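User: I'll paste a sequence; please echo it back and then give the predicted structure.

Assistant: Echoing your sequence first, then the prediction.
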Amino acid sequence: MQRKRVLPLAALLLCTPALAGTAPAVASPQTAPASKPSTTSPAPLRILLTNDDGYNAPGIRKAYERLTAAGHDVTIVAPLTNQTGAGTRMMSATTITVKHPEPKVWAVDGTPGDSVAFGLSEVFEGRAPDLVVSGTNFGPNVAGLATHSGTVGGAVAALESGVPAIALSTGGVSVPDPVATVNAMGPTLDFAVKLIDRLRARARSGPLLPQGVGLNVNHPVVGPDGKGTAAGVATTFQDPQTILEPDFTDSGDGTWKVGVTVDLRTPAKGGDVEAVIADRIAVSPMNATWNTGPADHATTSALIAGLRP
């Protein structure tokens, strides 16, 4: 995903200590006098809420409760079953099963991308939501995990349709403790509400984010019980390492046992892994294309110069 182009835009919008509720380490430079504050609060948002853990998972239900309590109009359109690791995959079947088990909740028997596609086409038909929130996911979506994440895939599906999107995840880079991770979803969603408030305040009556830009937000599990406060907020990029390495064992009968091992290498400076390890919230801008930017485009042009069919 293209990082160099969108990173300054998100950095300009988001990463100030106020979001984490912490004071700046040094005095801020003098700025021009602030304009007169508006007497009207930003309007609540219409939010399509999805995930990859399933429509009834703790993370999405907690997100629904917290975002609704913040005054937003939230509708869950999420997978019927756990779709962890689905990435950006979308089904190509001629029919799809959709359940509507309760008001404001739709369960789609497909991937997060399918859920978002159905939500935008049918549930929000004629008037797109202001924002798609995917998560909060159980466990991190940093480094290579983000590439294959259904949580991130749901956000990408929204971006492809021109709808602003945020992917939310809760977890560190070690094997997650279930109780601590679920507890940490509280601080994750408190931050999400602050972030959305910031976007609304900055947007005024315009778009919440620059066109085509989404945010991949990873909140650490702080403290043994997960209820601690993050050390800060960092604008990051997706660390290029994979973290999980596949392991295959020959069973001798034509089948192979499949496992994974954790291979955590030295984190890239400024990357999402470094931030989460330091108990900071990682906010990585992303887009829905695989474009890598003008520098790599120029390099590729040089590589193929003179080649003929």
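Residues 63 and 189 are 6 Å apart (CA to CA). The helical segments are 7-13, 58-69, 112-123, 143-147, 150-160, 178-203, 272-277, 294-304.
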